[in-house]
Amino acid sequence: MKAEGFDLTSVQFAALNTLGKGEGLDQATVAKRIAYDRATIGGVIKRLEQKGLVTRTPDDEDRRAFKINLTEQGKDQLTALQPVVLALQNDILSELSDTEKAMLLKLMVKALKSAG
After folding, report:
1. 3-state class of 4 per DSSP?
2. Can you name the residues that pair with 55 across neighbouring β-strands?
3. Transmembrane segments in this chain: where (predicted)?
4. Mean pLDDT of the 90-98 span
5. Phi, psi of 97, rounded to the nearest 5 degrees
6. Which regions of 21-64 does DSSP assign to beta strands (E)?
7. Cα–Cα distance measured from residue 72 to residue 96, given in angstroms and rounded to the nearest whole number
8. What local confidence, expressed as pLDDT, does residue 116 receive?
């Protein structure tokens, strides 16, 4: 991503991508969906907030939790990043057949579900 001019880690991208699919999630849900440690997701979200990509607002139902939303800048950056990530994935998986790619994805989803 840095080679393409983006200052984001893979975990930050995963969090943005997750929020792009369902905003208003709390930090614990984002952590679970990207299979990341709940204890440190707050730092990831804080850095995204400092970059102007997300906002954190207290949850009305649980004052200990924060709801996370993409800013317009975050939405724009996610849109710009998606083709870069897709190209990287295609490079990494270029030696796999379509059947093997589908199987790998299925196994990765299964592994993530069992981790959460």
Report:
1. helix
2. 69
3. none
4. 89
5. -75, 170
6. 25-26, 54-58
7. 36
8. 53
pLDDT band of residue 14 (cuts 50, 70, 90) is: very high
DSSP 24: S
CB atoms within 10 A of CB 109: 10
Q: Which two tokens stand for residue 112?
A: 């993530």
Expressed as residue numbers, the domain containing 88 is 2-115
What CATH number corresponds to the domain at position 106?
Answer: 1.10.10.10
In the block, which residue shows the tokens 């970059």?
Answer: 51
pTM for the model stands at 0.81
C-alpha–C-alpha distance, residues 85 and 46, integer Å:
22
Structure tokens at 5: 């001019």
Give pLDDT tens digits for 55-68: 999 888 888 888 99
Total structural domains within the chain: 1
Q: Which among 46, 68, 51 is positioned nearest to 6, based on CA atoms?
A: 51
Dihedrals phi, psi of 59, to nearest 5 degrees: -75, 130
